[in-house]
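Entry 14. Ran structure prediction on the chain below.
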Amino acid sequence: MDKVLSTRLDERILAQLEEATRRLRISKKQFLEEAIELRAGGIAQGGFADVLASSAGAWAGRPGTTDQIIEEVRESSRGAFHQHWDETAHLDVPDRA
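Output, structure tokens:
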């Protein structure tokens, strides 16, 4: 059952609320409910949500050493760069004279 909540908010906060709900295309009610649930969930876990603690285990199941993983990421990045470079190399760039 929904209840009515009345509160005073700074105009700056209200403007941010308006902008956020417009961009997200959600109601103010939904926005506030989600924000409260996120904040309350962080408190229930013994403090504010610690992003590092909650994601630190994400790398645990990856095969290979840290150095191997870093090299794979670098190679992938280099490959993407060279692919982009090859695709755009034919483009004429106007002189900035």
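Residues 3 and 29 are 11 Å apart (CA to CA). Will compare against last week's run tomorrow.
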